[in-house]
Amino acid sequence: MWMRTVLLASLGLAIPSLAQYDPSSSGYSVKTPPLSTDWTDKVGTDPWTEYPRPQQVRDKWQSLNGIWRYEAASSLDDVHSPPTGKGESFGAPVMIPSCLESALSGVMAEAGSANLSWFQTTFNVPSNWQGDNVVINFGAVDYQATVIVNGNNVTAHTGGYNRFWVEISEHVNFGEDNELLVFVHDPTDVGKQTNNPSHIFYTPCSGIWQSVFIEPVPKTYIDKIDLSGDMWGVGNITVHSSDNSFQSVKVSVLDENASTLYVGNGTSDTAFTFTVPNVSLWSPSSPKLYNVTVTLGDDSVDTYIGFRTVERGTVQAVTRPLLNGDFFFAFGPLDQGFWPDGLYTPPNHEAMVYDLQFLKDLGFNMVRKHIKVETDLFYRACDEIGLLVMQDMPSFNIDLLPNDEQQAQFESQLEEMVQLHKSFPSIYAWVIYNEGWGQLDRGPEVEITPRLQSWDPTRLVNSVTGWHDHGAGDFLDDHHYVEPQCGMANASGPSSPYDPDRIGFQGEFGGLGHNVSSDHLWNVPIAIAAINETYEIDKTIDEWNSRAHTVLGILESQIKDYACSGGVWTQTTDVEGEINGLMTYDRRVKRTIESQWKSDIQALYKAAAARGGGDGIGPASTANDTTSSTVLASQPSESASSAGRKAEGGGVPGMFFGAFVAATFLSCFDNRYLFLS
């Protein structure tokens, strides 16, 4: 089963990675970062051994993570003359996965210097894979990647966050070494990450920053699975085949004891439903997951499902978010996912989970994943721990508006993000625009929102978080520092008029600063100089906690008195020149007084419960429970899980074909935020 497979991987029992150079002689070493973490020295030379794709697990696979080689390219034309056959004379050692600008890479390139890069390794395809197709998978490459195997250009992909994959069988030699080259173009100096990081703008990430692996598959294989479950025990699945062959597929649902709860058949490339009786529902308090095995011909993969329904409804005449029929007050931090040693890439899986468990232990039930899309393992951890995720679409630049071509690519990248992540039960809402960054005056979210709801009718849509609200989506989302103004009609401005028919939400607030000793600061002069730009800075941790208690008390009163249905505290950790985290950037200082924060967060949930809500972390319930809430839209015929929309369109999207396209550089558009698939 998938859980056993993933557990073995997490224990280091997966098929080992094929770092092709003896680490002792490769010359690789971790550079000294401006700030380290407790995991910096634990990276080793065989990183991220966990199975990278937890929702589509195969028994046979081979990690390509480890020590590769890197050298700078001089122009875009270099892609037409790949430097094949150079072996260990190829450039310098580099850790994969990593950001080139990070200490973990072993390169630690200066911001703006890694725009054009070559990455090289060799790998051996086991001879017993002969007769199968071989697929190579990339978790994420920032930004434009051209993949070359044994001198053959096999694919190009554009977009810095989403995974992509391609068959390479006809280009590899079985039982022998094969050369892999990846040409990466990363035009960096636009957007949240720039060549001149300061305050809310950070060091960029270039290169292969998520895992790479190969796997054998049959001639016709499972290419992708869309899977969701609802509060009535109804599962909705589409099994996409590699050749759109409309073959018979078998679906088995099992419990943690491997007892079969459901077995049924359907047809690939077509949505079908199944029902599992008396399932336990997924919620933050009871993050119940069920193992699922899917078989198509000679291919079989393990995945999992959580049964839960997210929708918009009314409770006591107030518009609310509903989880499994109950009003839930979602409360969590803004989570940017930066690391002082790895930037976008956490030093290891343990470090990544540490952040999430810290938040869960304080009583948070949600994170807002801000302007970054994480590795699939992040969302699996949220599924398992029980943390809801409000997922941002990475943004354009603050003051740069897109032209028509760029806007079309933004929307294409948004669709890819949704299509590749919509099977994670922890994700409960999508964010299209943050604070108007790259948002055209005409309000394109009005047209985008119903399309997004048709791609994924099982979640809420936060069309605009912050301001410039044109009335689309499920949320009326306000940003205000330091103190909140959540769900208040008298706090709405001309750019975001009050709308009682949508969910009142405090998309950002808090942001309280506290300076610490230089041992815990990002030791870069421009970052140190930016510290005073923090909204408020308290001198001591006690003062910081006292002020936080006051601010959270204000939010509690707004829950009691107004239509406030959730909030996002800025932020999980310090990031470079920002010192307003619940923890310092190195994760070594927790500013939070645990007992106080637990009490204050529980007070928010209790205030919501008094207004008809659940306990804040969601009731542990079973399918077919009845509720007293009113859903704001009728259920589409495809699945009961589609309830709760005030949207046009619906149904189940067809197979998503936009995984691989030729790399195209738009010089004025942020390399991180195009998501061109």
Helices and strands in order:
Elements: H1 2-10, H2 23-26, E1 62-63, E2 66-72, E3 92-96, E4 116-124, E5 133-138, E6 141-142, E7 144-149, E8 152-158, E9 164-167, E10 177-185, E11 207-208, E12 212-217, E13 222-229, E14 234-241, E15 248-254, E16 260-267, E17 272-275, E18 282-283, E19 286-287, E20 290-296, E21 299-305, E22 310-315, E23 318-323, E24 326-327, E25 330-335, H3 349-362, E26 366-369, H4 376-385, E27 388-392, H5 404-421, E28 427-434, H6 445-455, E29 460-466, E30 475-479, E31 503-510, E32 512-514, H7 525-530, E33 536-538, H8 541-561, E34 564-570, H9 594-609, E35 630-631
Parallel strand pairs: 25-26, 25-34, 26-27, 27-28, 28-29, 29-30, 30-31, 31-34, 32-33
Antiparallel strand pairs: 1-12, 2-3, 2-4, 4-10, 5-9, 5-12, 6-11, 7-8, 7-10, 13-14, 14-17, 15-16, 15-20, 18-19, 20-21, 22-23, 22-35, 23-24
Organism: Cryptococcus floricola
Protein name: Glycoside hydrolase family 2 protein
Pfam families: Glyco_hydro_2 (PF00703), Glyco_hydro_2_C (PF02836), Glyco_hydro_2_N2 (PF22666)
